[in-house]
Amino acid sequence: QVQLVESGGGLVQAGGSLRLSCAASGRTFSGYAMGWFRQVPGKEREFVAASSWSGARTYYADSVKGRFTISKNNAVNTLSLQMNSLNPQDTAVYYCAARYDSYSGSYYSAALDYNYWGQGTQVTVSS
To answer: What count of other Cβ atoms lies within 10 Å of the Cβ of residue 123?
Structure first.
């Protein structure tokens, strides 16, 4: 089992930045591919960014490419999401997710690919 706890959400003005963190505990963190998703009420969970187990390979949704950066630090069991140039359309609850990847080096962009989820952290961007 892997337990995931997100932090770093909050209220920010358009154009501002936030950094989300996801602390993992439980099994060995390094063998897990991870991702960030977001969800607004009444809509499906939306893919944001993904990282391979090592962090060497990353993948982004078109809507955040060039503004968000995902990073995975296996030494301290943490996944981060640096979010810059935020706009009101980025308002959502942000979730981190993990799946055991057997060190394959893949990344995953579908919510169904992930086995473990955090409780989410709210990000609100005001105009």
So the answer is: 21
Cα distance between residue 91 and residue 52, in whole Å: 25
Beta bridge partners of 33: 99
> E-assigned strands of the chain?
2-7, 10-13, 18-26, 32-39, 46-51, 58-60, 68-73, 78-83, 92-100, 116-117, 121-126
- φ, ψ (nearest 5 deg) of residue 29: -70, -30
Cα atoms in the 13 Å half-sphere on the side-chain side of 92: 21
Q: Say whether 29 sits in a helix, a strand or coil.
A: helix
DSSP 8-state assignment for residue 119:
-
Query: Is pLDDT at 71 greater than 90 in this prediction?
Result: yes
Query: pLDDT at residue 102 above 90?
Result: no
